Structures are given as structure tokens and as C-alpha cells.
């Protein structure tokens, strides 16, 4: 199979690692993805879906105690999958990473913000779901060259009836002479479509794709026509935006809000009552932004302009990451992958 043109990775942001663990076959089709930030990062979240499955999101609110986190966990298993964070907590505790609560280095409480997607029964057995071991294994798998497609939390994902998965993208923004990196990882498990039902092309262009051939479009339309109105609606899209910009928690929250705009560009419809769409932002702080928060006029609006640029980039990379998940997906179980239905759409 030809190698897809890469869109960039969440790990393009220095200090951010990604790991996966999955089980597929023999009644299983689910998994877990962990974003590991060994040096810590400011974290915020924005939840838009009407049926979210999350953990430790209240701790991220501005004004609350937790200032930095060292990992975010994304998992299948619906609410049962929230248990995967226990495994990530154990791995962080062994490394003495977390909120200090005592005089000794090992006296820490790791805070692991977590979100889950609904994939129960996708492999055939409803009770086969991720456990704490999945979180631990995904954490230990974290590295600089993570896989994408039907891996980790995207193993049992569906996207408008297609095989869903994990996608990534990154971009750079020039701010006051400094190059700021913004990247995204999306777990696409949406009831909405990433592909236009009429044309067979994604709503958001991807560098690996071209316009589908006539045969592709015919096959695509036949497949769409064969779908029923009973498609499972208990779906969601979750993900992480990472940046090396020096953001505080309210600013990171604004970036997460903007990333949802990208989600809505790539997946239509989005943010339904039965979705749990949630996006985290991680800001490592390596790149300072213009700072006029002291109220002085000398650099009027410079920080707001910079933040707008980071937010706009977040929307763009998250939209592309959603399409990237579908491009890299491979057929698992009874849901076809997009490029299995439309092989001529792959750019030579």
C-alpha cells in the first residue's frame, strides 16, 4: 500500500509523546491512547457534546488547584473506559509526577484528564472493554513516532458508518518573530460524516487524497444508499491540541474552544445530544507570547492577536486531523475503511 502523505503529528510539539494500546479480534475491538508530557503542561478542556464521558475535567477549571498535568488519556469503552486513567496514574506515580501533597518526592497525586468514546460491542462481545492495564500499556508505548488510523482509542471507532480512527496534524504560526507550533490528535468516532455523501470527497482536503474516480463515486453512492437510518448514534469525537506557546489556563481553554470549530468543519453534523465531543489543550510554554496583560498600552492588543493566531491554527489542524484519521483507517470488523471503498481517491 502506498504511504500516505503526512500531515504532521502531535509529537511535532517538543516534549509531547503519544502511545497506543489496542485489542482486536476474538470479540475485541477497542483500545486506549495516551498523550504523555513528561515535563508537564498547562491543560484546559472544552466539552461540546450532549453525552460526554470524562474524568478530572473539573480540576482544569481556571481558579482551581491543578496548574499542570503530565498526561491526557483517551479511550474506548464508553464510561467503563474511564478506568484506563488508573493505569496512567500508576505509571506517573512510579515516576513521582503529579500534584505534590507531601514532603517526599513520591508524595504526589497524578491528575489524568480523560475522555472516552462509545465502542461497546464493536468487536462482538459487549463486556470486552479497556481496563487500567490498557492505560498503563499505552503510557509505556508513548514515543515520538506514533501510529495513526485504527489504533489506540480509534480501534473500535466508527465515522458515519466507516471505520474511524486516530488522526494527527500540525502547523506553525509566526508570532512576533517567533515560530509557534500547534498540533492536534483526533479520535474520530462520529455519527456525523467526514465524507460528503454526494461527492465521496472529505469536507476538509487531505494531501494524500485526490478527487475520487467515477468508479469510486459510483461505489460510494451505492454504499451510502445501502446504509439504514438505524446507524448507531452513541458516538463522539475527542482529542488533544498541543502547542509550545506559553498559555495560561483561560487562554488554553479558548484554544480548545476554537478547535471545536475545526471539528465542525470536518464532521457534519457535530456536537449532537448523544455525542460526547471533548477537546483538551496542552500548552508546554516553551514559546513566550507578547504580554500586555499588565494593562499598559505600549503593545496594545498584541497578546490577543497572538492568541487569535494560535486559536485559528488549532481549528485548522484539528479539522485536518479528523480527515487524517479516516485516510489512515483500515477495515476492522464490519465497517469498511474509506480507501477500501474508494481506492482511486488515494493520490499516486
What would you say this structure looks like, in words?
- There is one protein chain.
- With 348 residues, the chain is of the alpha+beta class.
- It has helices spanning 84-94, 132-141, 214-226, 249-266, 302-328, 338-341, and strands at residues 17-25, 28-47, 54-55, 69-75, 99-100, 108-109, 114-116, 158-159, 162-163, 165-175, 178-189, 236-245, 278-287.
- The model has no long low-confidence stretch (mean pLDDT 93).
- It is 24% helix and 26% strand.
- Strands 1, 2, 3, 4, 7, 10, 11, 12 and 13 form a 9-stranded mixed β-sheet that branches.
- It has a single domain, classed as L-amino peptidase D-ALA esterase/amidase, CATH 3.60.70.
- It is globular, with a radius of gyration of 20 Å.
Record keyword descriptors for this entry.
348 residues, alpha+beta, L-amino peptidase D-ALA esterase/amidase, nine-stranded mixed beta sheet, two-stranded antiparallel sheet, 6 helices, 26% strand, globular
Amino acid at each position: 500500500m502506498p504511504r500516505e502523505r503526512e500531515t504532521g503529528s502531535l509529537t511535532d510539539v517538543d516534549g509531547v509523546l503519544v502511545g497506543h494500546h489496542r485489542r482486536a479480534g476474538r470479540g475485541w475491538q477497542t483500545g486506549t491512547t495516551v498523550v504523555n508530557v513528561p515535563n508537564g503542561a498547562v491543560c484546559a478542556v472544552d466539552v461540546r457534546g450532549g453525552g460526554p464521558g470524562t474524568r478530572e475535567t473539573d480540576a482544569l477549571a481556571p481558579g482551581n488547584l491543578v496548574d499542570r498535568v503530565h498526561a491526557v488519556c483517551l479511550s474506548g469503552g464508553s464510561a467503563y473506559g474511564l478506568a484506563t486513567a488508573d493505569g496512567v496514574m500508576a505509571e506517573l506515580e512510579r515516576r513521582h509526577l503529579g500534584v505534590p501533597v507531601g514532603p517526599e518526592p513520591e508524595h504526589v497525586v497524578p491528575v489524568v484528564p480523560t475522555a472516552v468514546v462509545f465502542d461497546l460491542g464493536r468487536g462482538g462481545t459487549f463486556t470486552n472493554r479497556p481496563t487500567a492495564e490498557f492505560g498503563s500499556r499505552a503510557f509505556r508505548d508513548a514515543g515520538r513516532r506514533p501510529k495513526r488510523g485504527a489504533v489506540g482509542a480509534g480501534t473500535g471507532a466508527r465515522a458515519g458508518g466507516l471505520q474511524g480512527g486516530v488522526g494527527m496534524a500540525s502547523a506553525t504560526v509566526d508570532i512576533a518573530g517567533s515560530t509557534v507550533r500547534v498540533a492536534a490528535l483526533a479520535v474520530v468516532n462520529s455519527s456525523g460524516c467526514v465524507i460528503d455523501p454526494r461527492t465521496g470527497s472529505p469536507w476538509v482536503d487531505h494531501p494524500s487524497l485526490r478527487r475520487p474516480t467515477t468508479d469510486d463515486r459510483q461505489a460510494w453512492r451505492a454504499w451510502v444508499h445501502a446504509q439504514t437510518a438505524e446507524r448507531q448514534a452513541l458516538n463522539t469525537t475527542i482529542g488533544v491540541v498541543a502547542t509550545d506557546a506559553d498559555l495560561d489556563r483561560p487562554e488554553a481553554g479558548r484554544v480548545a474552544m476554537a478547535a471545536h470549530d475545526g471539528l465542525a468543519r470536518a464532521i457534519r453534523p457535530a456536537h449532537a445530544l448523544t455525542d460526547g465531543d471533548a477537546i483538551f489543550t496542552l500548552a508546554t510554554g516553551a514559546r513566550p507570547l507578547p504580554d500586555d496583560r499588565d494593562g499598559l498600552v505600549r503593545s496594545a492588543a498584541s497578546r490577543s492577536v497572538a492568541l487569535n493566531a494560535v486559536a485559528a491554527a488549532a481549528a485548522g489542524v484539528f479539522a485536518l486531523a479528523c480527515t487524517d484519521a479516516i485516510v489512515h483507517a483500515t477495515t476492522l470488523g464490519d465497517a469498511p475503511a474509506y480507501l477500501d471503498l474508494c481506492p482511486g481517491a488515494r493520490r499516486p
